[in-house]
Amino acid sequence: MRLPLLALLAQGxxxxxxxxxxxxxxxxxxxxxxxxxxxxxxxxxxEKAGLIEGEEVAQSSxxxxxxxxxxxxxxxxxxxxxxxxxxxPRVRDEFFMKLAIAPDTGMADPIALINxxxxxxxxxxxxxxxxxxxxxxxxxxxxxLIEGAMLHLQADLDWLERCQEELE
Length: 168
Fold this sequence. Notes:
The protein is mainly alpha-helical and 168 residues long. The chain contains seven helices and two strands, in the order αααββαααα. It has a two-stranded antiparallel sheet with strand order 1-2. A hairpin with a 7-residue loop joins strand 1 and strand 2.
């Protein structure tokens, strides 16, 4: 959450609720939204780290609010984040660990594990399809997020087929 918040602040000063709203608008309903408390805790940590600086803004009819803006160090952190490639493919996969250990424990049938995981992926795929149909068509970022998740699920389903073929 740290770096996406920093990147949003590259657009200009904002307070926590504005950042939460910007994330929701940008990513749509498919992306798990953080609560505003999590955002403010993260902003406090970013400020303590010197990546942003906050300023109290007086409001006449409401409590003061604190707006934040990037420091030079924050701007450098965002630039470095955009330059870095994202994590390598998943090698530490909890499901695979279950599948690998199950035969030695005698506590779970590997094929039953595969079938249960397959049902879970198919249910998730169905939920994402419904979400894609309901999501704002004018938000290409949200549509791309949903499409990417569905493509990953399809690859996972294909991999489950491969696992089942190998273990039967």
